[in-house]
């Protein structure tokens, strides 16, 4: 067969067609969509979760979706600039916690953007102590603060890492007003910095995660790096669903011992326990056409109905958690109100 | 272990190295970007095959940076900055091909030595690395900063330029992700929208080295003839392995420094090549030749930055903590496969561990083979007439700047601002090398300095924290004394030219 220019052209056209996604299910959607995320890391949980959801959505809607790890400030700016629906954002509870803690660059997402569907939970948020620490539990930590002992907690300020710390202070205040002053923050950056703060004896407790810190809990006590969980902030119902692969050699039952109600951090006088699940959800520009948001919602509903995405999410230690826009908005608003109360209680702003 | 070495495994390494070299060789594209783009592919490839691809990209990306650094004077990656110091003068003398071959051989040596160290000592080194707290990390950065004077033709102007670089690097928010307070500093009113994130490193780098050089050439008038007449690649001297005679210690020391800096999370690859380079200069019998086309300078820089590749994997695989931005992405590949990386990783996953070591070994050898034998084709870039070459470079710089942070337009403006700044700086006698070193190291220096004071509450902690701190102070004092001695010698030579 002689390869003529016509053959080459035909082959090129065919290749170009194959490279395009299948015909758009929703004809009105932009063909190319940018999914900006609130993290600059392409190795972190926000990126991984977004990549999984973007893949599934892209296939379902027949459009190209590219995940861009631009970070929170730039992601909000990109969302502000684009009301056509060609830019959407994926982030987690940090988006409103940053606002509650007054971090620069964080507006109230419920007022300035349209909060969209939730897609997954990362159940790993945890607090750890050195393995040879005198503190065996949250009860020990709160008792120490009550007795006037200073407990240093390494966190990254202004968001997800701080909310558990705020809850600890609030619990100390409920137990013995004034004792919350003995729970002090050691402001650090990455997980590496928090671990290092513990190894340098600069922190008595560190914020961490099941995924990142579990192996350190398996080390022998005489190892300088050895740690022990004292608190897993996830709801017990969430932990029940957590994929076992992400727990390492720690069993689900063991982890449940560190979560409410076994590890108790009261949030109010009634003794209700504080819990925190890190949830991922979409954010849209307020002027994004409703049909676009509906199309994303419908596509996600179908994707979760089919069930394949759940397997990918679980393999990456996420708990699938699809809530359609309306339900998600209500759920996240309620969550925000609870945390707002905790933060205002400890800052003395509560009325 | 041998069951994982399949044709697919090997071809992914080869493909990864090739794509990595291309990414590293294009100004503005980096190894990190190559790994980020390919990360989603690893899900379908499985863990060992996925890692083969990513490690190939990593080794290729780090190594590819030396090509534009030597031939165009634009570092392909921040850790190639010191390669430009001697690579460009060699290329201008018509020894571009020799410079590239020296760089490639040194990269291979650095990569293999660091791999050997990783294989033999990973967990032990990780235990040593955690002794480096904020204080020791600050002192390492300070040590790297102290070389600014040694890299300058005028010590005072060099120090001023370096401090200016530190100052400019601190523009923007003191990021909460670094443990900062989230407040803006050094941002003029009205510019908060653009400057809240400060100036990104890569656009600054390619602006200062790429655009500034183009503006300078444009000012002189670009000849329409092919530049090959001016830069006769490989014509004036051919490469011989004899150039490495007497450089064994330099190569081993630089590879060791690269590996060691890689082991310390948060210190950064640029510090590796900067410290390696200045050590080579300090211990050289002919320090005056450095910066003027001295092969030992290229050896130190390239062995240092490739030494980083094995070093950065030590904390990743022994502590679950990435040593640099590229290895941070590798964690994603593990997580996507449901594998946790931490202190038990090597013991619990011997197959994956062996596969990684083997993949790194093959990647280094493939990198060497590809680059060493393709050098003639790389070198052809300087035979392209400048009136064609410069617009292409400019276009690549703009695309690189725009894509480096996934599409932020201000990064393109940053490129332009620092291109013009770089062009003007030479006229004002400011020194670009210390400026960029200050710019790169400034943010880490600030964080570790502030965190040291926040944690220990006294300046004396920098002298009393540990024996490591004392050793680092001795190195810093030696570096400063060396710079002063060198500066006096230079001044003496100017005063007495006979």
TrEMBL record, chain A:
Keyword flag Protease: no
Secretion signal, residue range per the UniProt entry: 1-24
Coiled coil: none
Keyword terms: Signal
Keyword Signal: yes
Name of the featured protein: Tripartite tricarboxylate transporter family receptor
UniProtKB/TrEMBL annotation, chain B:
Keywords: Membrane, Transmembrane, Transmembrane helix
Membrane-crossing residue ranges in chain numbering: 12-39, 51-77, 98-122, 128-148, 155-174, 194-215, 327-346, 352-375, 387-404, 456-481
InterPro entries (UniProt xref): DUF112_TM
Superkingdom of origin organism: Bacteria
DUF112 domain: residues covered: 11-437
Protein name as annotated: Tripartite tricarboxylate transporter TctA family protein
Native source organism of the sequence: Palleronia marisminoris
